[in-house]
Each structure stands twice: as structure tokens, then as C-alpha cells.
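Q: What would this chain look like folded?
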Amino acid sequence: MTPPDPFSLAPYLDPLALLIVVGGTVLATILRTPAGDVVRGMVALGTLGRRAFDPGPLIDQVAALGRIARRHGILTLDRSVIADRDVAAAVAAVVDGATAEETMRLIDEARRARILRHAAAADMWAGAAEAAPAMGMVGTLIGLVRMFLAMTDPTAIGAGMAIALLATLYGALIANLIAMPIAARLRQAARREADGRLRLAAPLAALAALAGRERPRAAVANVA
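A: My prediction, written as C-alpha cells:
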């Protein structure tokens, strides 16, 4: 009899055990998570390969907008092209007459909303990490039941035992090598972005203060 290959993965593959663990984990995650957060969690996978958020270019752009406003007036910023949605909204508010305090509040609210969205995506994957070992235990119990029912047939005992052991293995691997690392990386990226966006508040508030100083002069010029 040929001994089994110690490097072969075939003994560790069981479709039924994998279906129980993966299917149960997906179902449990969907049932415990709002649909919008499930979508956010899946979409967030596309951000894992991106570079960390860098506020430097946006700060430089806001500084450049300040120089343009000094030379040509604050209303010229209405034609500015800003890729970042939060900064674009803050600049639009400044053009519309928002004060420095209102601008800081606007950018802070946008930052908090982003934090909540990122936290929801990370929580979805953390929930999957919690569910996977439990589904592995469910698979183990199913395998043990099948094994006990087949006690009269020694050739069928192995299939039940394989499900029982491999389901536990799959649950541990999915939780600790897939779901939890994804949740941890999403949280790390969210913290870095939140810290970076906090640095945008002061330059935008300064731009709003500049606009506030220019408007009285513009009003005087119009009266004259």
C-alpha cells in the first residue's frame, strides 16, 4: 500500500465541511449585519491594496486655493476642481459664505461620518470572524452525528469524522487568517485616514476666515 503524500492537500479538503462553515458564516454575517454595512464591507476589500491616506496633497491644494482667493477673490474658487468629496464640499461652503467655525464643523461631521462607515465595514468582517468558529463547531456536531449513525458500517465512519475535524479547522482558518486580518487592516486604515483628515480642518478654517475678511471689502467696493 502506497503511503499518503505528507504534502498533499487532498486529505484536508472536504466539500461538505467547507459548505457548512463558509455558508453558515456568510448566512450568520448577513443575518446580524444591516444590508448597507454588508455592501460597505465587501466594497472595502477594494481599499486594502491602496496606499494609506495622505492629507499632504489636499493641504497643499487648499493653500493654493487661498493664494488664488487673495489674488482674484473667493468667488473664483467656485470653478476649482477638487477630487476629494469632503474638501470639495467644505470649499463650496466657504464660497457660499460659511464662517470658519461652520467650515470646521462641516469637515468634522464629514470626518465622523467616514469613521462610522469604516467602522461598519470593519465590524462586518469582525462579525464574520466571530461566526466562523461557531459554524466550525456546528460542522463538527453534524460530522459526529453522521459518524454515530454509521457505527454499524466501519467504512462510513471516516466520512463523518472528516467532517467533524475539518469543519473545526476551516472555522479557525477563516476566522484567524481571513476575516479578522481584514477587519484589523480596515480599522488601521480608518484610523490613519481619520488622523489625516483632522489635519485638513485648520487650513480650511483659515480659508473661510480669509473669505470672511474679503467679503466686507467687496461689499464696500460695491457700495462705492
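Helices lie at 15-32, 35-43, 56-72, 85-95, 100-149, 154-198, 201-223.
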